[in-house]
Design goal:
Length: 1898
């Protein structure tokens, strides 16, 4: 290699020997010749020759065509863009292959690929997999192929869409466990791959350096520094486009496998090559110029090229270089540790960062080199440099990453990347496309830094940590502003400005994510935690965020502009501070790591001290300011917590002095108070965003990095500071000190009265949380998880994924993957029950939910945890409501319960001091005062306050000092009692202490002032309780006049004391006496002092409260007097749930348990029968509350009554209006229930509310929805539903659908017969038929018009388009788009006309004929007729023209005629389908209940009577009369004959006959028509049967039947008739030429009489069903229900085909229904003759037309596979058939399986996108599409669309919209049924509520 390199290195001028035309020689020959020359041992000559050739071919003098810069660029570079480049590429390929074919060469190289790694590189949006079970690093990812080849059954994996791109880790055991490798990468295959032959890659080693150098020259040429402001991305992109082929060529080389990669690695990292080719020395002008461009680019990037003072090789230390020593920063500045360059870099430490005056960086000279020096020593380094300069073009990134499987390259590239790190970030900061660029950077870095071994190596050799921290600092420094916290003028603190783009756009995330990534490696994190310098710098960095985004409370005006910077602030703290913190914490889990914690805590405290100094903080926070960002406090708190919990550190050894603790608690406490202020609407003028901050602060993703550490820190401070001081601070911060007075009135100088109550609630709630939360004070991880889960489940039932999301886990810093998901599942199953997803046909589809088990409600419901974790206050209420419901349901408590008191986990010994808060006089005074105020009904107190007060008392009793003895009272001398309220500090004894008089300061207006002071305050006024207490106490109690207490003074005093104690040496400080006259500074002067007589103790107050709450005197009776057991086993379930009364009883019981003294006093108080409260004044108040209660109770009852009434109304309304498919117990609407004798139907108008008949001039109409439907066309004739294709082999062909079959039949008829006659022989509407449905409500048509007018003027955005006539029914809000007029007169064809039927069938036939002959004149111009016309227009416009026009002559009246009777057919057929395809169930059925067929028939009949059928063409004649002359019927040869009557569709004939009759129709005429048509139908059945059977069968039957022909009932036996039909038909050519075809026609079974009878019945059944339905609608007769076997006979008798006297003989014969109007054999002869003449010419078609398939199965959607992945893998990469690209949003139609592009512009036709177009072609405007990438179903209905939901759910019964979670999904059959049901019943419009217009863009 060295020789070769040397040869390449000489940059000689082209050799003269090589003739000029050498280039033009055959490339292959030249290549072969050169290869041979180079293979000789002495290859000097060959090498030079090759050099010369490459110089020519790859010369960069020919500038890139069209690229900016370089000479001749303007000239366009000749030969069109890139002709020369292509030529050069061709040469390279030839040379590499050494004369052979390039493809063969590639294959040969691939054979030597030792592929142990997959390494497939993908870009954004690629679908990859991640398996947590197999992953070692959480960033592990696999390509789909490797994933499916591996075995991951039962693993915790998910599919995801790559955001930034990535690479497959299969085969890399550093990142994943080997058990998860796929089959291809399991074998360590390097062993069995043979050695690469030397000559195979020899040419590559010579050619590639030149090729890469050429690429670099192009990159240098193309780069122009962007002008000041204008980004020149366009130019850069142009250059890149032109270089595309070159880079792709390199990329292809990397894909050849390991052998080629190692050659490339050699080339890219060889320093000699690079030096020789690129130095720009030598005579080559072009190379010189190129080198200059490179230097300019370096300079303009703000980088120095350390070459000014040196020649290559060794380098003398120049003046002023740093003294970092040889090892110094060599790594960081790019020397990769080669022996020849152990040089010191010069470090120009004087400028650069130093220029920023605001922030001093502790590590001056060091950072300089990191930020500003770059030196390139190999191709790889310069390639990366240009990649960065061009802002990471995707192709380059992919090339660089594709090389990574080569280990040597991986190390070299990682070092290069680190060396360029600072430069990358500088470029990123300036970039305009920072998002794309960030993704590309992370795409690279995540591959490099996820590997622990590599990360450790780079950290050691290249100072990776220093670089990262410095670069982060440098980045944030650019957006610092002066902090306004605390002391605005003199603050020295600087914070980041959250409004800057850097923070707002999250530009820093690549950096932070890399940092978090490397900190997850233990070896790297330990290095970080040991390096004091780094820690100092890091704390410096964190302090930039301390106090950012400061909020100042607006007091006057509402803020003009609500800034949204808080998003940026929270994201920054979470990502840049908290996540690295969690990363570091995860390595501090064992005792051996104590040292690390000490380091962090030490530097953290130093940083905090600096911060307090910088903001000039003494002891009071500035008012009306709050910042939610205190990362330094939180670092400190979290490391303390870890130290105690995991490292067994002594807490006091890491705590600062008292003064520092006081300072530390101020800001977190300020946040807690501000939360209460925000919730009390005190910040309302700051806009909504401040609420947003308060919510984000406690939100699940943030709470464990924000509120939890804050509360923990406050708990630590509280456990170490003086409890009186702490409690006073709390009430002062919450601004409620003034409220805590015994007086009934007070003045609050800092708070408005309306906020007092909620602030007091806030303060007490905070204290409860502070004292009962144990998250960091001793709970184990599993207990925490359980508590969090219970709290979330109690608020609401949750889905599995939302639970995962809501439960704060210490975020695993890299990817947010929940680490302990196994314990998660076990805890979940312990506390919750799974509720499977349910489906209400009309309602929302719910997902699988988890709901708390009963015992959880009973024992674990913890209101404190719920309050802490709720983002919205309503969730607390929701939890309480659910708790109440549980208690009612389980019979534990009937009333409105209070939040239950929950026992807590025991405290960790380090935090025992926290409980002193509960035993300090200050708190007891507050509790006493509040109890007294509540008892006296002072204002601004609430049940919530009482609840919290009792909670605190109970907490105190639960956590009282163990050694409390009854004598404790008398010890302890006077100095314990400086404030004379309470003797000691133990709650148990203080509870029984009586307080007699209190001196209060009240406004002069207060009622207390007017009262005379008591005569004396001596001991005799103590009341009768004096005997029970030692005299010493009494005396002491009254030595002062009365107790005056001021929290603020108290706090000041304590504060002074602590400050003095901690600062002065003298520890014997005298406690300053409190002055009785002390008053708050600035309080208004008109306060006066009053003395109140109290005479209560906490115990007596509690007992009186019990009386007050229960509303009875003396309601409390000590339970232990009856049952001494109570004292022995105190945990009585009776007390665990209940309201305030229960709580008081529970507390008194606990107090009695704790001391005999208390027990005695309670008994004594109860013995004294006292009125519950002082007389007179209070009785009024009490009366008021009692009245209030009573009034409330009455109001409640009234409300209940109203609600009940409303509910019943609603229920009855729902029953009539809304049921979609509830078949039983339904009351039919009035339309069908009119009794026969009523002559006129009465209709209610739902708009004006009047009732009346429909009349000609004021017609009433039914609210209807007209929609085109192709559901009928989707029926198939086989039972097996079609499957959705999921492989290339499976395809769906539509030719077996009903629509296709009918289409074929019509076009066949039209080929041979007269057009107008064809259009009467069939029905259309199988596709695009108009379906009419109604909600059953009626309205006056004029009312409807004014209703539409008002909708038009209504500006509210509706979900429908009024201009298209759409509206919602004014009563039931069902969607509709037209009104169907009701025909005046009876609403059911009257049965009064049914006289006993004595006319013969002959007479009836004549009557029918006459009635049809009468021309139907259009009735006179009335409102009714106008409406009829307009609704007919609506019906026509509902469907597209192509579904209406089938005639060959456009616009022919036959078309309209066909369309009209087909509308009737469509509606009847659809109703049949809704009834399940048969009429066995009978009854009116829901479909009938709201059917509008009757009205529809009138409209259609009215219009059809306008057309007359010429009498000779009227099929009626052919059916009922014998023609005189058979031959004349044939028609002359030239024009086409009419359709033979046997080819007619009988059901169509029925509709034509009936609609041609004048309405209303007589029942006897109807029956007559049916009888006649049945004879035709039966003959058709026989003909079809004869064609189906074999020749032998036919002749046998012919003979057998011929014998019976002359018997008396021959006309009613199928044998005789069949044999006659066969003999008639065989006269033509129908049965001939069956040689080949015979087998296809013959059914394999031999025909038995039974099977023939069944065939004939099945053939006739569809006609009978439709006819029966029609009769049911026209004459209102009920359908009988029956078994399936007897359906034929029941329907036949119901239609009057069976004579009434017909006894059911056992074998029922269908022929017995026949009633021939003319002799059967004659008419059959006539019918068969028509066919005979046709089949003589077209036997095949004649036969096909005879066999009509009438047995259609019900329509179904396609069957979907069980697992969604099957669909996804096949379709998400499938190319679109129209544009052959892979669509961005692929979708598939669930009706026919067509693959379409959603929103794809590629497939747009006349402004319709593909889905909309397909919905029109496939479903006549209704489309059901499965969106492949989202797993959701979208419905298109006309011009609107809606998201329906998903039919695929995961194992927990949840949808995964957009596949965000990527869990395996399984089909939910119930949901799919619901979807299919809605499709078949056409109820999408009614059931789905969220519709929007799609503007044809789907």
């Amino acid at each position: 290699m060295a020789a070769a390199a040397a040869a390449v290195g000489g940059t000689q001028q082209p050799q003269p020997e090589l003739p000029a035309q050498g280039l033009a020689l055959d490339k292959a020959a030249t290549a072969a010749h050169l290869k041979a020359a180079l293979s000789r041992p002495d290859n000097r000559a060959g090498a030079e020759e090759l050099q010369a050739l490459l110089e020519r071919v790859l010369s960069a003098e020919r500038p890139l065509a069209g690229a900016a810069g370089g000479e001749g660029a303007a000239g366009g570079g000749g030969g069109g863009p890139g002709a020369a480049e292509e030529e050069a590429l061709e040469w390279c390929k030839c040379l590499l292959a050494g004369g052979g074919g390039y493809e063969e060469f590639c294959a040969a190289v691939r054979a030597y690929d030792p592929a142990a790694l997959c390494g497939l590189v993908w870009t954004a949006n690629f679908v990859a997999y991640r398996c947590r079970t197999c992953g070692i690093s959480p960033c592990m990812s696999l390509c789909a192929e490797c994933f499916h080849q591996g075995d991951h059954t039962g693993h915790d994996f998910n599919m995801f869409r790559s955001q930034a791109g990535g690479a497959c880790d299969c085969g890399d055991s550093n990142v994943m466990r080997e058990s998860g490798f796929c089959k291809r990468h399991q074998i360590k295959s390097s062993s069995n791959v043979p050695c690469v032959p030397k000559d195979l890659l020899m040419m590559s080693e010579f050619v590639l350096p030149r090729f890469i150098f050429c690429l670099i020259q192009y990159l240098r040429e193309g780069y122009n520094e962007p002008a000041a402001d204008i980004p020149s991305e366009k130019d850069l992109n142009k250059v890149l486009q032109l270089l595309e082929p070159q880079i792709s060529f390199l990329e292809d080389l990397t894909k050849m496998g390991g052998a080629m990669r190692s050659v490339l690695t050699q080339v890219l990292t060889n320093q000699q090559n690079y030096k020789d080719l690129t130095s720009g020395l030598g005579e080559n002008a072009c190379a010189k110029k190129s080198h200059e461009k490179y230097l300019i680019a370096l300079k303009s990037s703000g980088l120095t090229y350390p070459e000014d003072k040196l020649v290559y090789g060794m380098q003398e230390p120049s003046a002023g270089t740093s003294t970092l020593g040889v090892q110094g920063f060599a790594g960081a500045t790019g020397t990769l540790g080669q022996a020849d360059s152990s040089d010191e870099e010069d470090q120009d430490g004087s400028q650069g960062l130093g220029k920023r005056k605001r922030v001093k960086l502790s590590s001056g000279t060091k950072d300089q080199s990191i930020m500003d020096v770059l030196k390139h020593k190999s191709f790889l380094e310069e390639l990366l440099f240009w990649t960065i300069k061009y802002e990471f073009p995707q192709k380059m990134v992919t090339f660089l990453l594709n090389m990574l499987p080569d280990q040597e390259y991986k190390v070299a590239f990682t070092k290069t990347f680190v060396q360029h790190y600072a430069f990358i970030m500088k470029t990123l900061k300036k970039s305009h496309e920072s998002d794309t660029m960030s993704n590309r950077i992370v795409h690279i870095s995540v591959q490099l830094f996820s590997n622990e071994e590599l990360a450790r190596q780079v950290t050691e050799e290249c100072q990776l940590l220093d670089i990262m921290v410095t670069v982060l600092l440098y980045m944030m420094e650019s957006c610092l502003i002066k902090s306004e916290l605390q002391d605005e003028e003199n603050s020295l603190h600087v914070v980041v400005n959250c409004g800057e783009a850097l923070l707002k756009n999250n530009t820093y995330w690549p950096l932070v994510s890399d940092f978090i990534n490397i900190l997850s490696h233990q070896s790297v994190a330990k290095r970080f935690l040991e390096d004091h310098g780094l820690l100092v710098t890091w704390m410096n960095f964190v302090s930039f965020f301390q106090g950012m985004n400061l909020n100042k409370r607006e007091l006057n005006e509402h803020v003009e502009f609500e800034s949204q910077t808080y998003y940026a602030a929270f994201a920054a703290e979470l990502e840049a501070c908290a996540q690295p913190m969690w990363g570091l914490l995860s390595h501090c889990k064992v005792r051996e790591t104590q040292e690390y914690t000490r380091n962090v805590v030490r530097y953290c405290l130093e940083a905090l001290q600096d911060w307090f100094d910088a903001i000039n903080f003494v002891d009071e926070p500035a008012p009306n300011q709050v910042t939610f960002h205190l990362p330094l406090h939180r670092y400190y708190a979290m490391f303390l917590s870890k130290a105690v919990k995991c490292q067994e550190l002594d807490l006091d050894s890491v705590l600062p002095d008292q003064e520092m603790l006081m300072k530390l608690m101020i800001h977190p406490l300020q946040i807690q108070a501000s939360l209460a202020e925000i919730h009390s609407n005190m910040w309302v003028r700051n806009g909504l965003q401040i609420k947003g901050q308060a919510m984000t602060y406690v939100q699940s993703h943030f709470c464990n990095s924000m509120i939890d550490p804050d509360i923990y820190l406050l708990q630590v401070c509280a456990s170490r500071l003086d409890p009186d001081y702490f409690i006073s601070s709390v009430f002062e911060r919450f601004k409620v000190v003034d409220l805590l007075t015994m007086a009934s009135q007070h003045q609050n100088t800092v708070l408005d009265a309306e906020h007092e109550r909620s602030m007091l609630e806030g303060a007490l709630t905070f204290l409860v949380i502070l004292l009962s939360l144990r998250l960091h004070l001793g709970m184990s991880d599993d207990e925490i998880l359980r508590a969090e889960m219970v709290a979330q489940l109690c608020m609401n039932d949750r889905t599995h994924s939302s639970l995962l999301d809501l439960i704060p886990e210490n975020p695993n810093p890299k990817s947010g993957i929940i680490p302990g998901s196994y314990s998660f599942e076990s805890v979940l199953s312990a506390v919750a029950d799974f509720k499977a997803p349910v489906f209400e046909p009309g309602g929302s589809m719910q997902q699988g939910m988890y709901t708390p088990k009963a015992e959880v409600w009973d024992q674990e419901f913890d209101p404190v945890m719920v309050i802490l974790r709720t983002v919205y206050r309503r969730d607390v209420q929701s939890a309480m409501d659910r708790y109440t419901a549980f208690l009612k349901q389980s019979g534990k408590f009937p009333g409105n319960p209070w939040p239950p008191y929950k026992k807590r986990t025991s405290l960790h010994p380090s935090y025992k001091g926290l409980m002193r808060l509960l035993h300090c006089k200050t708190l007891h005074i507050v509790l006493f005062t509040l109890l007294y105020k509540i008892l006296m009904d002072h204002q601004n107190l609430s049940e919530h306050v009482l609840c919290m007060v009792l909670y605190l008392i109970e907490l105190g009793l639960e956590n009282s000092a163990e050694d409390e003895s009854d004598e404790e009272i008398s010890v302890d001398g006077p100095e314990r009692c400086h404030d004379s309220w309470f003797p000691g500090s133990n709650l148990v004894s203080n509870m029984r202490h009586f307080i007699n008089y209190v001196r209060v300061r009240v406004p002069e207006t207060a009622p207390e002032v007017k009262r005379d002071p008591p005569a004396s305050t001596s001991s005799d006024s103590l009341g009768s309780l004096q005997r029970s207490r030692p005299p010493k106490v009494l005396q002491r109690e009254n030595s002062g006049t009365a107790q005056v207490f001021s929290l603020v003074a108290e706090r000041r005093k304590k504060f002074q004391e602590i400050i003095n104690r901690s600062t002065s040496e003298a520890n014997q400080v005298v406690r300053p006496k409190t002055s009785n006259k002390w008053s708050a500074p600035g309080s208004p002067p008109q306060l006066t002092t009053a003395i109140l007589e109290i005479k209560e103790s906490i115990l007596s107050l509690l007992i009186k409260l019990h009386h007050k709450l229960s509303g009875k005197q003396n309601s409390y009776y000590p339970p232990w007097l009856d049952d001494i057991e109570v004292l022995i086993q105190p945990e009585i379930p009776k007390y665990s749930h209940g309201d305030g009364i229960t709580a008081v009883e529970r507390i008194l019981l606990k107090a009695a348990l704790q001391s005999r003294m208390n027990k005695r006093i309670i008994e004594e108080i109860c013995r004294k029968v006292t009125p519950p409260v002082p007389p007179k004044k209070i009785t009024a108040a009490e009366k008021k509350t009692l009245d209030k209660e009573e009034r409330r109770q009455k109001a409640r009852e009234r409300q209940q009554k109203l609600l009940a009434e409303f509910a019943s109304r609603q229920k009855s309304f729902m029953e009539t209006a809304m049921d979609v498919d509830s078949s039983e117990n339904d009351i039919p609407m009035e339309i069908t229930t009119a009794e026969p004798q009523v002559s006129e139907a009465i209709y209610d108008c739902v708009i004006c509310g009047q009732s009346g008949p429909s009349s000609e001039d004021r017609p009433t109409g039914l609210v209807v929805l007209l929609q085109a439907s192709s559901v009928l066309g989707q029926c198939r004739d086989n039972v097996e539903p079609k499957k959705l294709p999921v492989t290339e082999e499976e395809q769906i062909y539509p030719w077996d659908t009903c629509a296709a079959v009918h289409d074929v039949r019509l076009s066949l008829l039209q080929r041979y017969f007269k057009d107008s006659s064809c259009l009467l022989a069939v029905s259309i509407g199988w596709e695009g038929g108009v379906y009419v449905q109604t909600c059953g409500h009626t309205l006056h048509i004029d009312c409807h018009k004014s209703y539409m007018e008002s909708l038009r003027n209504d500006q509210v955005l509706q979900g429908f388009s009024v201009d298209k006539g759409e509206f919602t029914c004014p009563l039931c809000r069902q969607f509709a788009n037209s009104v169907l007029p009701c025909y005046p007169g009876s609403n059911v064809e009257n049965n009064l006309w049914q006289r006993p039927n004595n006319k013969s069938i002959k007479d009836l036939i004549k009557e029918v004929e006459e009635l049809q002959g009468r021309p139907g004149a259009f009735p006179s111009e009335t409102n009714l007729s106008k409406e009829m016309e307009s609704v007919m227009k609506d019906i026509k416009n509902t469907t597209q023209k192509k579904y209406r026009d089938y005639s060959k002559t456009p616009g022919s009246p036959d078309n309209d005629f066909l369309f009209m009777y087909s509308v009737a057919r469509t509606n009847l057929e659809l109703e049949l389908i809704h009834r399940g395809g048969n009429l066995c169930s009978g009854g009116a059925s829901t479909a009938g209940k709201r059917s509008c067929l009757n009205q529809l028939f009138h409209v259609l009949a009215l219009h059809m009577r306008l057309y007359t059928i010429d009498s000779e063409y009227n099929p009626w004649k052919k059916l009922t009369q014998l023609a005189e002359d058979v031959n004349s019927q044939l028609g002359s040869e030239e024009h086409q004959p009419e359709v033979p009557i046997l080819y007619h569709d009988v059901t169509s004939l029925l509709l034509i006959q009936i609609l041609m009759m004048p309405q209303p129709l007589h029942k006897e005429h109807f029956t007559c028509i049916v009888k006649v048509l049945f004879t035709l139908l039966y003959t058709q059945a026989l003909a079809a049967l004869s064609v189906k059977c074999s020749e032998e069968d036919r002749s046998a039957w012919k003979h057998m039947g011929a014998l019976r022909k002359n018997t008396c009932d021959a006309e009613k036996t199928y044998e005789a008739l069949l044999s006659f039909v066969i003999s008639e038909l065989s006269k033509g050519k129908l049965y001939h030429e069956e040689g080949t075809q015979e087998c296809s026609m013959v059914s394999p079974i031999a025909w038995s009489p039974e099977s023939m009878e069944k065939y004939l019945q099945d053939f006739c059944l569809p006609f009978l069903r439709i006819t029966s339905l029609l009769q049911h609608h026209l004459f209102g007769e009920d359908l009988p229900s029956c078994q399936e076997e007897e359906e034929f006979s029941i329907l036949a008798s119901c239609l009057g085909l069976l004579p009434t006297f017909y006894q059911t003989e056992h074998p029922f014969i269908s022929a017995s229904c026949l009633d021939w109007p003319v002799p059967a054999f004659d008419i059959i002869t006539q019918w068969c003759f028509e066919i005979k003449s046709f089949t003589e010419r077209h036997a095949e078609q004649g036969k096909a037309l005879l066999i009509q398939e009438s047995r259609w199965k019900l329509p179904h959607l396609l069957q979907l596979p069980e697992n969604y992945n099957t669909i996804f893998q096949y379709y998400h990469r499938k190319t679109c058939s129209v544009c052959t690209k892979v669509p961005k949003d692929p979708a598939v139609c669930l009706v026919c399986g067509t693959f379409v592009c959603l929103k794809g512009l590629c497939c747009k036709q006349q402004s319709y996108c593909e889905c909309v177009l397909h919905s029109q072609n496939c479903g006549a405007g209704t489309g059901i599409f499965l969106l492949i990438n989202a797993s959701v179903i979208i419905i298109i209905r006309g011009h609107r669309f809606c998201l329906w939901g998903s039919v695929y759910l995961d194992a927990h019964g949840e949808e995964d919209r957009d596949l965000r979670r990527g869990k395996p999904l399984y089909i939910c059959k119930e949901r799919y049924k619901v979807l299919e049901q809605q499709w078949i019943s056409h109820t999408f419009d009614h059931i789905n509520k969220r519709w929007g217009p799609h503007y044809n863009g789907l």
